[in-house]
Automatic annotation (TrEMBL):
Residue span(s) of domain Peptidase C39: 34-159
GO biological process: proteolysis
A single cellular component GO annotation: membrane
Name of the molecule in the record: ABC-type bacteriocin/lantibiotic exporter with double-glycine peptidase domain
Pfam families listed in its UniProt record: Peptidase_C39 (PF03412)
Source organism per UniProt: Alloprevotella rava
InterPro entries: Peptidase_C39 (IPR005074)
Organism domain of life: Bacteria
């Protein structure tokens, strides 16, 4: 974490600053929880739509993504996004390419059975990567590269979104900028 003792004044102060910084980042990204086990895809799409300044109910996005008892597919999410004026691209990509090329926020197919939003990738001064995830089943979380890559996302599918109507919102979540 940091090189200062957490019980020292400076160590405590640094922990508070780090916490507040993470909280500020998290508060800026629109977050919605899923209401049902099968709602992860539409909930992720709702977050991305809100990021681009659009407001849709979860039910509207559920209807447009052709949700079934098994949930929703990437194609269903893509169709729903296209129906509300976004352009999508669904591809399989390595973590390295994701960091270098993905337009954030994007939806990741997590563990091959769940959808989450990757809204920020940050590299610290030591070169370590951190992935900021909006998980509609739980909360906003941050994973280090060791936690993120091997289990959750190793050459998996992701879907990127562009706002087709109006000017694309520039992501201020890219690499800490």
């Amino acid at each position: 974490m940091n090189k200062f003792d957490k019980n020292s004044f400076l160590g405590s102060w640094l922990n508070i600053v780090q916490f507040k910084t993470i909280q500020n980042i998290k508060e800026k990204f629109p977050f919605y929880t899923q209401l049902d086990v099968m709602d992860c895809g539409p909930a992720c799409l709702r977050m991305i739509a809100k990021f681009y300044g659009r407001h849709y109910s979860l039910q509207t996005l559920r209807d447009r993504s052709f949700i079934t008892r098994e949930g929703v597919s990437m194609l269903g999410i893509s169709d729903a996004a296209e129906s509300v004026g976004m352009r999508t691209a669904g591809i399989k990509i390595s973590t390295e390419k994701l960091v270098e090329e993905a337009i954030l926020p994007c939806i990741l197919h997590w563990h091959q059975n769940h959808f989450v939003v990757l809204y920020k990738v940050k590299r610290n001064r030591k070169g370590k990567l951190f992935f900021f995830i909006a998980d509609p089943a739980s909360r906003l979380v941050c994973y280090g590269q060791k936690e993120f890559t091997p289990i959750r996302f190793k050459k998996r599918s992701f879907m990127s979104f562009l706002n087709r109507i109006g000017v694309q919102k520039k992501s201020h979540y890219r690499n800490g900028e």
